[in-house]
Amino acid sequence: xxxxxxxxxGYSGMVLYHLLSQHPQVEKILLFGHSATATNxxxxxxxxxxxxxxxxxxxxxxxxxxxxxxxxxxxxxxxAGVTSQVAQPLINDNFPVIDLSGDYRLKDPLQYQKWYHKExxxxxTLRKASYNLADLSKPTSNYVANPGCYATATLLGLxxxxxxxxxxxxxxxxxxxxxxxxxxKKLTTNSHYAYINENMLPYKVNQHQHIPEICQQLHQWNxxxxxxxxxxxxxxxxxxxxxxxxxxxxxxxxxxxxxxxYQTFYADHPWARVYLDGFPSVKNVSHSNxxxxxxxxxxxxxTIFVGSVIDNLVKGxxxxxxxxxxxxxxxxxxxxFNLIPDIP
Length: 344
Ligand SMILES: NC(=O)C1=CN([C@@H]2O[C@H](COP(=O)(O)OP(=O)(O)OC[C@H]3O[C@@H](n4cnc5c(N)ncnc54)[C@H](OP(=O)(O)O)[C@@H]3O)[C@@H](O)[C@H]2O)C=CC1
Ligand SMILES: CC(=O)N[C@@H](CCC(=O)OP(=O)(O)O)C(=O)O
Description:
This protein is an alpha/beta fold. The chain contains eleven helices and 14 strands.
């Protein structure tokens, strides 16, 4: 199949290119940039792609028609606010899209406006997109809204507890930490080396755009869950997310019982690994598509703790996008993943 990719010069776009180029079903990758500034196919030498990428393919100016005529699916690894502007013709034609941004994740346009501070697309258009956490479901439409990185770590950590009604619905607290690549390639004051090196800071407290996305999915699993307490912290790592999740048990339980619940829940899910001894670290999943989970119960406080780790660029973005492509085209879910975690 032929695949189009918009945003190869970004962090998740580069990882996506890497994964697509080793996917056995992908014979051609067409690269698209901004509509106005990218060069055309005849100007390979000034393609605008950094030479370290070692990509000989040209970067084409963004154009829906070319994408539809010359490929079978398009990935958008572009910031929020791009697909809401450019993807409508693809939706009208029911062309397969996998969107890594948050533009089509929330069903309620007012929620998007509130949390992303951008203009939403119309509600009817949002209905045509399917938010799909690829480890637990398959897309129900051709427009796939790939989940956010923090949301992925959090939802995979909470799914067995929420779906099995094992926790007090209003007791969820998530303390999530991310490496800097989660913020993309643009430089900000907080991501400047001199500031973030040897440093850590909470940011977007109670304002993070993944809060409504997480609540939307949790509510779908269990309609008694309406809100969560969610804090994000930037830590001086390149890759990785650790979501530390806390919730009150509905009734007293034990670590052994909970580990069994998680093992049963994830038994047929190749990318989720449940630890029976200790807790996973972000290095355990680095450069891989795994989500590793460790669970503990504190009977003194009746609190369940779950540690959920992912690589934000793979499971949190490009890897999950490939899983969603595999679902969309009925390939085996694990196809194209020749990845094992690499330490250090
Ligand atoms: N980084 C992560 O860990 C994760 C990211 N995401 C989401 O994935 C998307 C990409 O993130 P990330 O890779 O971090 O972002 P980057 O900032 O690293 O890269 C953004 C890419 O989008 C391109 N781009 C920007 N505007 C346009 C436009 N109008 N038309 C075409 N191309 C455009 C940029 O091109 P140029 O180089 O020319 O500027 C660049 O290639 C975002 O929506 C992000 O929220 C989701 C999960 C995790
Ligand atoms: C470390 C860091 O800054 N992370 C980003 C995650 C961005 C992201 O994944 O954006 P989406 O909303 O499109 O999913 C953040 O907290 O905003």
